[in-house]
Amino acid sequence: MTYIVIGLGNFGISLAERLTRMGHDVIGVDSDINLVEEYKNTISSTICLNLNDSASLSVLPLEDAHQVIVTLGEKVGNSVLIVALLKQHGVKHLVARAGSKLHQTILEAIGVDEVIMPESYAADLFALSAESPQIKGAYPVTETDQLVELEIPNILISQTLGQANLEELFHVKLVGVKRRKVKVNVLGANSFYYEMADLNAEFSFQEYDRILLFGEMKALQKLQKKLY
User: Fold this and answer.
1) Three-state DSSP class for 45?
2) What 3-state class would DSSP assign to 95?
């Protein structure tokens, strides 16, 4: 897939490099030639353009892009202008980063397909992990529901899915289990990675497992209080 990432600041370049590593064709665009030169070898391609000019933006392969992502969250005026120009060009799927609730409201009013607020998400995740160290990841699905990744509580180790009975006891959905694997690096030392486990009829939880749960935040909090 082809992605156009407009703005090569900290978030923009991190996103562009991640998408490139995932095997996508990524075009990084910025008005700062120094940034364009700095990252030209870490993403698929980079282009230096006047981002506030409609004619300049028209040279991009907008029709071929799976998504065009505007990452200029701190520069509200520039962000809104660029988004408006891209809307005029008929971009198929336009994503924009917002730096505040007001910025989000403006972008939604313009008709952006998706608004992202990575700072807000990172703050929410840090707050959750600070409160509950067993939380290794969290993704808000709705205002009341979340998908969370938790360290396996000791009480569940060696239990089967039926014995744990998480769905009935806590009204949460077990989405999957990540199991720790060991590999030996080039220096002969052990390192660890995770793979999704096969949740068959004989499955039982093991030490170091991580469980992926979906449910209302109140139900997930109740589970944590009971099991940890």
Assistant:
1) strand
2) strand
Q: What is the CATH number of domain 121-227?
A: 3.30.70.1450
CA distance 188 to 204: 30
Q: What is the mean pLDDT of residues 28-47?
A: 94
Q: Are 139 and 167 in contact (CB under 8 A)?
A: no
Q: Which of 207, 217, 226 is nearest to 152 (CA)?
A: 207
Query: In the structure encoding, which two tokens stand for residue 208, read together?
Result: 């170091």
Beta bridge partners of 177: 211
Q: For 2-116, CATH number?
A: 3.40.50.720
Residue 191 sits at the vertex; the CA angle it makes with 190 and 195, to the nearest 5 degrees, is 125
CA distance 78 to 185: 46
CB–CB of 62/27 below 8 Å?
no
What are the tens digits of pLDDT across the range 168-178? 999 999 999 99
Q: Where are the domains of the chain?
A: 2-116, 121-227
What burial class does residue 82 get, using C-beta atoms within 10 Å of its C-beta: 0-12 exposed, 13-18 middle, 19+ buried?
Answer: buried
Non-local (6+) Cβ contacts of 86 within 8 A are: 57, 62, 68, 70, 94
